[in-house]
Design goal:
3% helix; Immunoglobulin-like; 473 residues; 4 domains; five-stranded mixed beta sheet; 48% strand; mainly beta; elongated; six-stranded antiparallel beta sheet
Length: 473
């Protein structure tokens, strides 16, 4: 085709037409549809927890950004994509703020392409309540017709609505309603085991529910056994003179508490590294052997087992600290309280009596009394020890605090805690070992007699606690 340009304006028109024809559309002119996007439409999480936004976005011209936003969730996140991919897989992890209120939130996700065309998607985010937390004492030991106490703590930042205890075999179904929705609650619920209950073990379910109906369940083992009428109990462990190396048959006797049936008590010295005890139903480890489930946990429950852990008396940095320890085997309960010594310990103590091989002139003569070692092995200033004493077949003994006469310190034994009164011999005849016997100060107090029990002996005396140990070595 031939064109003939006749004047200048025709030339200009022709030039414009040519530019339009040969140049086409500008590269930056918006063309095509907006992006497409598909995302997970519903997410749920707890305040302080994490959720993940996932999905796929595509655009034939290239995606430049993805923006997620919700003011209540403090979410304002822009993901920049400088390489303008034609598809992008979203996998964005987000932590729901801890202070977020429970409820539903609408998160807007905006996908934008390079021509500033965009598409919006809505994702529902449900902020749900966390379940409560709870810790309860287990196991519990009880007897038919006796009482046990469920103890523990529960907590929930949104408020606790109820606590339910249930077990069919124990006929237990108790719900504690908490209308004020406390954020923490200390359980202290006493329960009497029904008289028709069979002996054995029971799992009591304790369910703690918060005001958003979220719950947690704990199981507490209850052991129902016969009540035993214990006539005597003993203590073994690190607090003894020989500590954990104490031979069987030489554990310390506990005394019955006459004013509180079922309770036994004992006075003990305790110091760092030698402060552990276990309660025994016999003068040996085998049989009843009470300790705790875990002595690293405060208020750990009592457990009758050789595998139980010893109870640790508090280490007060004293040499020693003195404690009154009480124990009720049928209630699986123990207590302890510190006893503060008053006065000044004596600087010396002696054994006086008769029948000691190697001391032929003793024969109740204070000037020939046998000296004891004060503060042996740094056990304590109130404590005295004599080892390797050789008894004949007829020995009697007491303690005195001087070898110049019978006063001022004259210590015998308390008749209220002795047995086998031998009136014909005029004193108390006893069989070794003497385990933590109660002594008594004063003129005319009882001596101990050992007949036909010759051999080498250890005699240990705590003047403050008024307790003595006499062991055949």
């Amino acid at each position: 085709m031939n064109f003939k340009i006749t004047n200048s304006w025709q030339a200009i028109v022709l030039l414009l037409l040519s530019a339009t024809f040969f140049g086409g559309c500008s590269e930056d002119e918006p063309t095509g549809p907006p992006p497409t996007a598909t995302f997970t439409t519903s997410l749920a999480g707890t305040p302080g927890g994490k959720i993940t936004f996932q999905g796929m976005a595509t655009d034939e011209n290239g995606i430049v950004s993805i923006h997620l936003s919700n003011g209540d969730l403090l979410l304002d996140k822009t993901i920049e994509l400088p390489d303008k991919p034609k598809s992008y897989e979203l996998d964005y992890e987000f932590e729901i703020p801890l202070e977020t209120a429970i409820g539903d939130y609408q998160v807007t996700i905006t996908v934008k392409n390079k021509f500033n065309k965009s598409v919006e998607s809505i994702v529902k985010v449900e902020a749900t309540a966390q379940p409560p937390t709870a810790t309860f004492t287990t196991p519990l030991n009880g007897s038919i017709g006796g009482k046990i106490t469920f103890k523990g703590t529960a907590a929930d930042k949104n408020g606790i609505a109820s606590i339910r205890l249930s077990n069919i075999g124990l006929s237990l179904d108790k719900t504690i309603l908490l209308s004020d929705n406390p954020k923490s609650y200390i359980l202290d619920y006493e329960f009497e085991i029904p008289s028709v209950t069979a002996l054995g073990e029971y799992q009591v379910a304790i369910t703690v529910k918060n005001k958003f109906n979220k719950s947690v369940e704990s199981l507490v083992k209850v052991v129902v056994a016969n009540t035993t009428n214990y006539e005597a109990l003993w203590v073994g462990g690190g607090v003894l003179l020989k500590g954990w190396n104490t031979p069987e048959g030489k554990f310390y006797e506990m005394r019955k508490d006459a004013a509180n049936p079922g309770w036994f008590e004992i006075l003990l010295p305790s110091r760092a590294g030698f402060n552990e005890i276990k309660f025994l139903g016999q003068n040996s480890w085998k049989g009843d052997n009470w300790g705790v489930v875990d002595n690293a946990v405060a208020n750990s429950p009592i457990l009758n087992s050789e595998n139980s852990e010893p109870i640790k008396l508090p280490d007060l940095g004293k040499k020693p600290a003195y404690y009154k320890v009480r124990f009720n085997p049928n209630k699986s309960t123990y207590t302890f309280e510190e006893i503060i010594p008053s006065g000044t310990p004596p600087t010396q103590m002696f054994i006086v009596g008769s029948g000691f091989t190697g001391f032929p002139n003793l024969n109740w003569n204070p000037s020939e009394a046998i000296p004891m070692t004060p503060n042996p092995s740094q056990l304590g200033a109130w404590q005295f020890l004599a080892e390797g004493l050789v008894f004949s077949d007829n020995v009697a003994l007491k303690f005195i605090g001087q070898n110049t006469g019978w006063s001022p310190i004259d210590v015998g034994f308390d008749e209220n805690y002795l047995v086998d009164n031998d009136l014909n011999s005029g004193g108390w005849q006893i069989l070794a070992p003497v385990n933590w016997k109660v002594t008594k100060s004063g003129d005319g107090t009882a001596d101990l007699k050992f007949v036909n029990q010759g051999g080498s002996y250890t005699v240990y005396f705590d003047y403050f606690l008024k307790r003595a140990v006499i062991w055949k070595e």
